[in-house]
Amino acid sequence: MSLIKAYIALGSNIEPTVDYLTKARKLLGDYDEIEIVEASRLYLTEPVGYTDQAAFLNQVVMIETALSAHVLLQAIQTIEQQLGRKRDIRWGPRTIDLDILLYDEEHIVTDDLVVPHPRMTERAFVLVPLSDIATDINIPETGLTVKQAVAKLTKDELND
Ligand SMILES: Nc1nc2nc(S)n(CCO)c2c(=O)[nH]1
Questions:
Q1: pTM for this one?
Q2: Which long-range contacts (CB under 8 A, 24 or more apart) does 106-110 make?
């Protein structure tokens, strides 16, 4: 079976954030069926959504995998638990947050997984790291490439 390219967003806003992202990439790579092929730079970003919390450290990685999207989801949820992710406050601080942004060009809508990530085109903390490693890929259902989504977000923010 040919390998699928998937893009995973990493975030942490509990110190030591750098170590949590390092450990998350290590744990991802420890799966035989997951290879991290590209990694963006690390970005320190202002919290959006619930803003009364510490700044986040964000990154996006591209993996190649033969895992299905749902088995990949189980793997990243296991990694979150291994790194002490507490889901008490929904939008609160977290040691690590892993989100599947894109799974090839698939559009997936199930009760536990929606891909592309539904809010990714409104999130600079996702689009900017993503554009480090993938500018010309399509974001399914949006009619936008990553580059176009970044340009649109910037224009929207400038017009706000
Ligand atoms: N800058 C920033 N703000 C955020 N708000 C939430 S919730 N999260 C967690 C990811 O959904 C983040 C994040 O990763 N980065």
A1: 0.95
A2: 106/69, 106/140, 107/140, 107/141, 108/69, 110/70
Q: Tell me 136's DSSP state.
A: S
Q: How far apart are the first and last CA of the chain?
A: 46
Residue 111: how many CB atoms within 10 A of its CB? 5
Atom of ligand 1 nearest to the CA of 45: 1
> Cis (ω within 30 of 0) for the bond into 129?
no
Is residue 20 in contact with ligand 1, taking CB distance under 6 Å? no
Q: Is 12 helix (H, G, I), strand (E, B) or coil?
A: strand
Query: Could you tell which of 13, 46, 95, 153 is best to mutate to test the pocket of ligand 1, judged by most ligand atoms within 8 Å of the CB?
Result: 13
Residues in the chain: 160
Could you read off the pLDDT of 91-136 as tens digits, one per residue?
A: 789 999 999 999 999 999 999 999 999 999 999 999 999 999 999 9
**Can you tell me the ipTM of this complex?**
0.98
Q: How far is CA 160 from the centre of its chain?
A: 25
Beta bridge partners of 65: 4, 34
